[in-house]
Amino acid sequence: FGHQDSIQAIDSYIRDRAITVGARDASARIWKIPEESQLVFHGSQHSIDCVKLIDEQHFVTADDNGSISLWAVLKKKPLTTYPVAHGLGTSAPNWVTALAVMRNTDLIASGSSDGTIRLWKCSQDFRKLEPIVNIPVVGFVNSLEFSPNGKFIIAGIGKEHRL
């Protein structure tokens, strides 16, 4: 019962639910706490390392192969996946290491080791992810968060990936 690998990220919102991603088990799970049950989502063949709830019906994940996926809580597979979201490194896609969302909007931010924070717009039906702007930074983006009023994005930047 539960993930078959370590939990890499967790998020929660309004209801008595939490969402987790389990790295190498390549799954996301929504935990229905009062019911003591879970919904399991599979879509990536890679380590899913980031997750954020967009609203009560949708969430976003990112994996170590550089893909960002949009999901609906009533579907077991992603609605859409944007591959190589942060471009190619020397031998492989740049791994997406951080996600942030403006709750109940169409705005997502992602970060990587490529020296950029990227802002994305979800289509109205969550079936398309469109790049909006790239914000250059110096270093590895380890964490991202929008300010409560949405005017700022806060980034944790390091010389290397967080442990």
What report would you give on this structure?
- There is one protein chain.
- The chain has 163 residues and is mostly beta strands.
- The chain has one domain (9-158): YVTN repeat-like/Quinoprotein amine dehydrogenase (Methylamine Dehydrogenase, Chain H, 7 Propeller), CATH 2.130.10.
- The chain has strands spanning 9-12, 17-21, 27-32, 37-42, 48-53, 58-63, 68-72, 80-82, 96-101, 107-112, 116-122, 129-136, 140-146, 153-158.
- Strands 1-2-3-4 form a four-stranded antiparallel sheet, with no helix packed on it. It has a four-stranded antiparallel sheet with strand order 5-6-7-8, with no helix packed on it. A four-stranded antiparallel sheet has the order 9-10-11-12, with no helix packed on it.
- Strand 11 and strand 12 form a beta hairpin.
- The protein is globular and about 45 Å long.
- It starts with 8 loop residues before the first strand and ends in a 5-residue tail after the last strand.
- The model has no long low-confidence stretch (mean pLDDT 90).
Keywords:
163 residues, Methylamine Dehydrogenase, Chain H, 4-stranded antiparallel beta sheet, 14 strands
Helix proportion of residues, in percent?
under 10%
CATH fold type: Methylamine Dehydrogenase, Chain H
Strand order of the largest sheet: 1-2-3-4
E-strand count: 14
Subcellular location: Nucleus
Main location: nucleus
Organism: Oppiella nova
Protein name: U3 small nucleolar RNA-interacting protein 2
